[in-house]
Amino acid sequence: MVNRIRATRQRRPPGVILWRGPSRIDGKPIVAIATGLAQPSSNRVTGPAIQVWIVRSHVHPLDAVRRGQDRSVCGDCPHRGTTCYVQVWREVSQVWRNYRRGLYPAFEPDMLSLFQGRPIRCGAYGDPAAIPTEVWRRLRRVAGGWLAYTHQWDQPWCDPALRELCMASVDSPPQRERALALGWKTFRVRTPDEPVLPGDEKATDFAWPP
After folding, report:
1. In b/e form, how buried is each residue of 91-104, taking b as 16+ CB within 10 angstroms?
2. Nearest by Cα to 141 from 161, 168, 113, 162
3. Residues sharing a CB contact under 8 Å with residue 71, sequence separation 6 or more, in sequence order
4. Is residue 181 within 8 Å of 163, Cβ to Cβ?
5. Average pLDDT of each block of 10 consecutive residues along the chain (210 residues)?
6. Calpha distance 200→166 (Å, rounded)
7. CA–CA distance, 9 with 158 (Å, rounded to integer)
8. What is the pTM of this model?
């Protein structure tokens, strides 16, 4: 029996609850969940990275989108509920259902080893600025790769310390210039007919393995 208990404890969980509490955006209850700990992500763009999802803790993600309550996790992102590429009905909803079923344990300090040397994608859904910066710092210290964007970089409540952890996601050259002036590295969303500006071609190199 002791050996079975020990084996269970050593088994990698499918995900962990990194943090629960009030959104830094509007104070509503949200939760940050890391998945891909036991089975690597099949995302062809980011590879087998650990994915972090930020969702309303008591509202189904689809309901949150329909009611505009996804602002708690996505802020004033112009792609929220419209042009966002994330399939809320699929991956996000499944993570939320698993969370509500109690499949994810709460993060404990000894679980940091599960993230050691692994690439981490912060905000597979939701904006990293919605939760305390210290949550990201803790993971960044051990991560083997790092991918993080925030659309909240120009909000007065956004923690300036995120400039060392996230790229500013911008949607136009003027926004890009403003973000650069504020000390952010930038990632610009552009249409196919827009020109590539100096620095755009390096946008995805921010602390991410080649």
Report:
1. bbbebbeebeeeeb
2. 113
3. 25, 26, 80
4. no
5. 38 92 97 88 64 97 95 90 82 96 96 94 95 97 94 95 95 90 85 62 42
6. 16
7. 37
8. 0.84
